[in-house]
Amino acid sequence: MPGGRQRRAAPPTPTEKRGSGQWVIVAPVSATDLPKKAGFGPLFTRLRNPSTGQAALYLFSSDAHQLFEVKAFHEEYRSWFIGQAVQHDGRLFFATPMDPLFLVLFYLIKAEKEQGKFQPLDQILMDEEFSSCAMLLRCTSLSRSIHCLVEEKEIGGRKFYKYSEEKALKWLKKKVDQTVKVLKDHNVRVDGKVQSATFITGKHSSDATEEDYIRYAHGLISEYILGESSTALAKYLRLPEATAPPAEPASKKRKLSDAPVEAEEDYTKFNASDFKNKKASNKMSAAQKALAKVDKSGMKAISSFFNSKTKATK
């Protein structure tokens, strides 16, 4: 596929039903490279979503040096042909690179609330429910960038870390600035309200301000951090409180999701009986006018041809 991506079938996770077959996933080639050591390979696993704390699906590369976020595009009544088999699960999965610091940030804030002291990073990243979070320690970018989120000190040759909100906000602001640049470079139109689920590309909106871009980028970044961090970041960015946008007409509302857009009217309700009480149109077509002028005297009603015949009396 273009852009260095390839489509491969991936094995289902343990929670998938037996016999569900395979998945179809679009991922960078680096996500599915063959492992350098036997017994290793790309790993689909569930980790805590850094925004909600709930389970979400992620992918580690074969050497676990890179983390990918897995999203699914789902349409109803869709399936795949894989080889000679039909896969009933028609979802299309996308694996995109993700900064593991977002997941580490969740655990740093949690440790700060519970302990409030310096700890080794491997102790901070301990989760009995999601044991795979320990693999984050193997991500290459983590060791290079962990200083952006913590205060650290070394005792006896071992490093200890403690969450720093000031450093974290500076790091998040850089993420917002980078996102704003990408939005502008790719001509992504932004409005007063953030709709991070939908991208509309085109020319720059004439009424888009710098604040609009920052607010939009803040909304995107907020999908990867806790609500309290999102609020603190908005204050750090000096974003004024957003005013409620004017309500859109009902006819213009759309369902923002991966599912197909639903029809706004239930067209099954327009049966013949529903039109009996409706007034006829004031305008008549030329054919209707001509038919109205025809002399119908002596003509039988069309319904008379469908009446059951009466039996002749003896």
The gist of it:
The protein is built from 7 helices and 10 strands. It is α+β, with helices and mostly antiparallel strands and 314 residues long.
Task: From the 3D structure, determine the CATH topology of the largest domain.
Answer: N-terminal domain of TfIIb
Proportion in β-strands: 15-25%
Our measurement of the CA-to-CA distance between the termini, rounded to an integer number of angstroms, reads 85 Å
Which strand order does the major sheet show?
1-2-8-5-4-3
Low-confidence region ranges:
1-19, 193-198, 246-282
Radius of gyration: 31 Å
The arrangement of helices and strands along the chain is EEEEEEEEHHHEEHHHH
The tally of beta strands, per DSSP, is 10
CATH class of the largest domain: Mainly Beta
